[in-house]
Each structure stands twice: as C-alpha cells, then as structure tokens.
Design a protein that fits this description.
This protein is of the alpha/beta class. The protein has two domains: 137 residues, Rossmann fold, CATH 3.40.50; 60 residues. 48% of the residues lie in helices and 14% in strands. The protein contains eleven helices and six strands. It has a six-stranded parallel beta sheet, with helices on both faces. α5 packs across α7. The chain starts with a strand and ends with a helix.
Length: 207
Amino acid sequence: MEKTTIMFDMYGVIIEESKGNFIPYTYAHFKEKEYIRLTRQLKKEQLFTRAGNGELTSDEFLTALGYTDPKATMTDYIDNHLTLDKGFVEFAEKYHDVYDFILVSNDVSEWSEYITTHYDLNRFFKKKIVSGDVKCRKPDRKIYEIALEVSGKDPKECFFVDNSVKNLTVAEELGIEPILFNRDNEDYSGSIVNTFAELQNFLTSKM
C-alpha cells in the first residue's frame, strides 16, 4: 500500500532535547532545601507523568511544584530551554503537501499547543494526538490506535518517526513502518535516520 502519512514524535525529533530539560530546570529554579519535596512530587507522586496524562492542567502541575506564575514558567521553559530542530521546518515545507503529517506526542496539553503555536508548526499537521488530550501515552498501543482512527489511515499507509525504540516497536506491531530518529544512539535493527536531510533521502529511496 502506498504511504500517505508520516507520524512524528515531538521530543527528540522535532524538538532536539529527547527528554526535555524540565526536571533539571526545576531543580535549578528552587533552593536546595526544596529538593526532597520536589523529588517526592516528581518521582513518588509522579506529577509530571500525571500532567502528561491529562490528569492535571499545566497550571495545576506547576503550581503544585511551587511556581508562583505557572504561565510565565511554561513560556520561559519552552522559549529558553528547548530547541526546535530547524531542519524539521525545511523538511516540512517541502513534504507536508506530499504526506499527511500527524503529531503523536507524550506531552502536557498546554505545552504541546504552545510549542506548535510558538514555532508556527500547526500549519504542517493534519492531526495532533497528544497524551494530555487523549489520556494515554506511548508506548501504550491505544494512542497509536487513536491516531489511526482520527486520521482515518490504514497502518500500512503510515511511517512513524520516533527517537525511542520501544515506541517504534509497538507501532510496528500495528503495521506502521517505523523509523528511528537516532538522537540517543540506540541500538536498532530497523530503519535509522539522524537528521531530517537523512529522512528526506530515506523517503526518496522509497518512492
């Protein structure tokens, strides 16, 4: 079946930081006497994971951590501590009319929307499937099924580009063709690209 669609991960693909910088950002913001509390909230109470699963809004999450201006914190973190891979924009300008672009991202809902708006990325995506919106996250099989359902795509029509092998494995089990964007030097026996220029070459070889 002809490929019509590329599903993209955000962090580690479109955004260069594969795991984000929020936890070190937070520890740098607060005094050392707060570290035990922060560790409990982030690890034991899993506030970040819960926000990414849509159980907490961004404001609720950041306020619970002790930030007094949660909206300013969100924008400062995204604007100044995350890096857009500029190769994605060049790639997307060329290919978003050739393939349907679908975002499949584990993220806090408000953060994802801010990133795609701030960097003017919404124009590229036909659909955006964000864990905070759909209440499940990769590598849960359900988020891929939601992406296929809302986009109306057959798995065989789709590539999936992610920086995590475990995320790609589940996509492949569903019949989606996986491509590792290998920012973290993971071992992988399937298709691997390291840049959007390499992704372009890969797609050209498939045509």
